[in-house]
Amino acid sequence: MTVFRAFVPNPALPGGVELAEVERPVPREDQALVAVEAYSINRGETFLLARPRPGWRPGQDVAGRVLEPAAGGGGPPAGARVVGHAWDGGWAPLVPVATDALVELPESVSTVAAATLPLAGLTVLRLLRAAGSALSLEEHWPALLTRAIAAEPAAALREGGVIAPGFDAEL
Fold first, then answer.
1. Which of these, 36, 86, 135, 152, could form a disulfide with 64 (CB 3.0-4.6 Å)?
2. pLDDT for 112-121, tens place per residue?
């Protein structure tokens, strides 16, 4: 059994989290094992720390490198720089991420910047799917969204800088 240190919930502590030894994750056939270089903290996760589900560990938005590609095939190869939305466990050195929730990163985007995007991107995607037809964006929103995201967004959303200049009114 290989163990490493990761953040786990502990509602009895201030902040609701502690570093503890955990077992190395075993990915499913459809998951790649990602060596985490950066992760972001989501508001929802902070609420879950107060009343965690049994076995749940924080960490959804991650960026890093594929240590082991998905055994079932598909997805990025070993060594690829990636960003993904893990189910949980991303506040750790290693996390399994489903290949359909993982994309390769261009060299021009840092892992720190990329880790801030998965949940925010999913939120925008759901909004555009729900409102896209009403806004007549169904064919144009992928290109618009690609142009609208800043090349190097701020590491913390409270700092702003995620939306590229000139796109605030459109989004």
1. 36
2. 988 988 887 7
